[in-house]
Amino acid sequence: MVTNPYESIVGKYFDCMDDPPQPASQCPSKTALPNSSGPYFNSSTGEWVCPLCYAIVWQDNEDEINDLFDDDEGAAFDNGEDFVAEGDSIQDQSREEGLRATRLTAIEEIVSILYPINLPFATNMVKNKYEIVDRLRLLEESQEEGFTIAPGRGIKVKLLAITIDLSGIPLRAQEIRLLGLRQSQVEIRLKVLNTLRANLSSLSPIVEKIYYVGKSIGLSKNILDIIVEQYEEASPLPNKEPNESARAAAWIYIKAKDSGIKGVTKKSLKTVPTVKSAPLDRAIESYRDVIQKRIKPVEGVNQIHAD
After folding, report:
1. Is pLDDT of 161 > 90?
2. Residue 281 has pLDDT above 90, yes or no
3. Residue 253 belongs to some domain of the structure
4. Which of 153, 185, 200 is the last residue of a domain?
5. Alpha-carbon distance 173 to 61, whole Å?
């Protein structure tokens, strides 16, 4: 009986994890092939990986392998919460800043693994990391299926789905497995994103921004629906400020003040990463100028009062 030369790494009962599985004679994790040195050690993750299908092939017991690919999407520490060492302080870091920092760190970890094997995807993820995190936070705040923040709900699978959806660059099942995830986990979230895109296709970019900015500062959907309705009723509504996020924040600010909604301040709006101070001020001033010029005496009002 021929023994596996890599048995000390993959274990005695290892089966090829490619899709479809390769015969032992063609699996570089079961047989010494001419152009392969067998499983290689990924220093970024501390795991042994098959050079053919990128499956994690280190020797471990079956329960631990099943845990890795469990439907709850992984480690309890990857749950959207920030770890703070004993004695550290987060007084200067808001909850939103902490959540965004965690997601940016997860992107760095994904890129470090995928960069050598899928350069286009890794490069796109780095280039658009802030947009990716912005979209993830909106989906999380909206509590969309598969994108909620909860223990056991991994960050990386959500980031992968969003990046694939935005870039159109696919990932092979082997590459997804290299991250300790399953292709089905990503596909479920891609279906959600496709559905949401169909539902939002009729919305203008500025309306989408109003929902994003409003949800980022904690406004309910009912309130935002009213603010959007007011915007659409007032349209076309020109504004000299070109930044859409600033215009969206400015409209929210003005209508919140008109309605007496508490908590909507310039300071709170500026906590949204895409809303900057100077553009917000310019957008508010521009909207107010336009609204003021539109104010005209209502026909018949003076006559009614005179009677």
Report:
1. yes
2. yes
3. yes
4. 200
5. 23
